[in-house]
Amino acid sequence: MALNIGLISDTHLPEASNVLWDQVYAAFEGADLIFHAGDVHEFWVLDELERIAPVYCARGNGEDGGGGRPVQPEDPRVKYAWLLQLEGLWVGLTHYVPVPERPPNFTLARWIERFFPEQAPDVIVSGDTHVERIATIDGILCVNPGSPMYPHNYDTQLGTVGFLRLDEGEAQASVWQLTVDGIEPFEWDAVPPWKRR
Predict the structure, then answer these.
(1) φ and ψ at 194, to 5 degrees?
(2) pTM of whole model > 0.90?
(3) pLDDT tens for residues 50-79?
């Protein structure tokens, strides 16, 4: 049976806002799982998302006191790296991987050795950059949903989320732009809203 996974990263709450956009919760209704790729900052966000579906979260630098933020406690939903076998695929979740790569030191292979030494994933979901991206590197589908709050590190505004659909060994990823009325497919070749302001 196919799995539909909501993807989110870099919510930076309550730094960016006191609340997560309602559009995020509406978009994830019906998801089987939710992956948060880190820099949550405060774990009540995970509690809210967990009302919709089970949550897996990567621990980001923001949870470890980066930028003078409070260190967040241990939480069973939060690990530096998750490796899950879903629908015949190995799916990794961690806060950062170097996509695009910057050889010789910042390569996906080096990050896989660090975070997934037991098994190279077929799919890796990450965040950190606040820049949405879908790329295949060395046969691995790499997905960054961007940030719903700080897209491309601009000030607080409607950003992006993503979805990962897994079905019998096949994976498809998509990124969606949050809008005043909900979400719409992200237009990769268009000028994004944060550059039009």
Answers:
(1) -70, -15
(2) yes
(3) 999 999 999 999 898 888 888 999 999 999
- Torsion over CA of 161, 170, 136 and 122, rounded to 10 degrees? 100
Asked whether 116 and 92 are in contact (CB, 8 A), the reply is yes
The 10 Å Cβ neighbour count of residue 173 is 22
- In 55-169, beta strands by DSSP E: 55-58, 78-79, 81-86, 89-94, 123-125, 133-137, 140-144, 160-167
Output the six-digit token pair for 162: 């993503």
Closest CA to 94 of 64, 124, 122: 124
103-117 as b/e: b if 16+ CB within 10 A: eeeebbeebbeebbe
User: Whole-angstrom Cα distance, residue 51 to residue 84?
Assistant: 21
Q: Are residues 41 and 6 in contact, defined by beta-carbon separation less than 8 angstroms?
A: no
Separation in Å, CA 131 to CA 70, 104, 128, 191: 24, 22, 8, 14
pLDDT digits (tens, 9 = 90+) for 26-50: 999 999 999 999 999 999 999 999 9
How far apart are the C-alpha atoms of 173 and 145, rounded to whole Å? 9
Q: For the structural domain made of 3-189, what CATH number should be given?
A: 3.60.21.10
Only one residue has tokens 């961690």, namely: 94
